[in-house]
Amino acid sequence: MKRLLSGITPSGDGSLHIGNYLGAVKQFISLAKTHECLFMFADFHALTTVHDKQTLQKNIEELILNELALIGDMPHVYFFRQSDIAVHTELTWIFNTLTPLGVLKRAHAYKDKLSKDASDDEINVGLFTYPVLMASDILLYKPDIVPVGKDQKQHVEIARDIAERFNRRYRAIFPLPEPYISEDTAVIPGTDGKRKMSKSLGNIIAIFEREDVIRKQVFSCFTDPSKRHVNDPGHIEGNMVFYYLRFFGEPDEVNRMEERYKEGRMGDIEAKEYLYQSIFRHFDAPRKRYETLKHRPDEVRRILERGTAKAREIANQTIEEVRHAIGLKTVYSTTKQSCDEYITIDDFLHVKQQVGKVIDANYPEKSDRLIRLTVDFGDEERVVFTAVRQYGYTKDDFVGKQFFFVVNLLPKKMMGEESNGMILAVEAEDNKPKFLSAEGFPLGAFIR
Ligand code: ADP
Ligand code: TRP
């Protein structure tokens, strides 16, 4: 099963509105049919703007209840709190060291804040590095898709960029994450019909509020100001009631209503009443689940514990890989269990190295890379090939000189002849191999 990861920040009061639902949660629900899902409550992110303990706790609890009620508890769906998985912050630090300042200066979250009300002295560094934390959220879980609202697309692109930088600098650990944005619902306008639906703008339709509150919100929808009387012909374009009805109404009924509205055979009140009923019907089951869960904290805790265990297992595995790849891991351990990429000192002792003197060298026919060395080890002579002519080496660089050789390799067939050993080289900065001189060492001596 492919893996999905997404997160919602408990920055508002934690309650979701139909904008969040259509722009984010609805995608989660339909993708949950075919994906293993990790849904994260991004409380570390909330700290960039929420600085009151009680508020943060209330927000997060509300958000958890909202999401659980909307999405439901399924075997392959996991919910967890970001701060329960501490390695998000560790990976963020590591990513900080490979993210250019310029990338973050161009990020929306910071730029918007800067253009609104704040100077550099008022913006906390957490807000500035927020996209790096989000990259950690994503990459720790190596998801196949990351469904987000359009406003978050840039952040997923930054995560992609950071993954590429890591893979290039260290080792290819991270698959590049894909944002998943459903185009037709990317940004849902608010009831004012002007701006994006957002709690802070007071233009929302809530999902889990009291009925009278939701009714009032629905009845405040912007419609068609030129339609003053029931039998005036009305416009559908820009009319928020009909806009929302396309998501919540029954399609045939909505088509009939649109005709009647345009022809002046129907008023706002009837349309709004239908929208209100439709929204209520749509969220009937989630609203019931919400009430149930609200009175069963143990049930909520159980769901979160299960999600946390799953998230921790995946995140710990990734961070271990990362620590190894960047050198934050002790590799001279004598225990065998460390990692497949490393060999122990005991393993290394099996490599037999010996001082040999090159007594003859020539160029095999049909090769422009190989030099064939005849090497004296004191008690025996061996033929050893080395492929270094492309770096400008000639036989004169070898003849009459002593070098170190690995002598317990299985023979390798080269140009129809067996090569018995390997001359030791180190790789210098320009990629050109440099040979370790063994002048002054007794011929045939072994290295330990
Ligand atoms: P808000 O803007 O109300 O504070 P958030 O920023 O917490 O909401 O967003 C939570 C999720 O809901 C994000 O994935 C975001 O893209 C999405 N979202 C929020 N408002 C809308 C909207 N009006 N239309 C579409 N998606 C939205
Ligand atoms: N920043 C996202 C928002 O405000 C929430 C979020 C945090 C997120 N971490 C994430 C979304 C990881 C997707 C993946 O909506």
Task: Please characterize this protein's 3D structure.
This protein folds into three domains: 3-186 and 289-305, HUPs (Rossmann fold); 209-282, Orthogonal Bundle (Tyrosyl-Transfer RNA Synthetase), CATH 1.10.240.10; 351-447, Beta Barrel (OB fold (Dihydrolipoamide Acetyltransferase, E2P)), CATH 2.40.50.140. 41% of the residues lie in helices and 15% in strands. The protein has 16 helices and 15 strands. It has helices at residues 18-31, 43-46, 53-71, 87-96, 101-105, 108-116, 125-128, 130-139, 153-169, 211-219, 240-248, 251-262, 268-282, 284-294, 297-326, 345-348, and strands at residues 2-8, 35-41, 77-81, 146-147, 179-180, 353-362, 370-376, 381-387, 402-406, 412-414, 417-419, 422-423, 425-427, 433-435, 446-447. The strands form five sheets. Strands 6, 7, 8, 9, 12 and 15 form a six-stranded antiparallel β-sheet that branches. It has a three-stranded parallel β-sheet with strand order 1-2-3. Strands 4-5 form a two-stranded parallel ribbon. Helix 3 (53-71) crosses helix 14, helix 4 packs across helix 8 and helix 4 runs parallel beside helix 15. Residues 5-9, 42, 45, 134, 137-138, 146, 148, 152, 155 line the site of tryptophan.
Can you describe this structure in just a few lines?
With 448 residues, the protein is α+β, with helices and mostly antiparallel strands. It folds into 3 domains: 3-186 and 289-305, HUPs (Rossmann fold), CATH 3.40.50.620; 209-282, Tyrosyl-Transfer RNA Synthetase (Orthogonal Bundle), CATH 1.10.240; 351-447, Nucleic acid-binding proteins (OB fold (Dihydrolipoamide Acetyltransferase, E2P)), CATH 2.40.50. The chain is built from 16 helices and 15 strands.
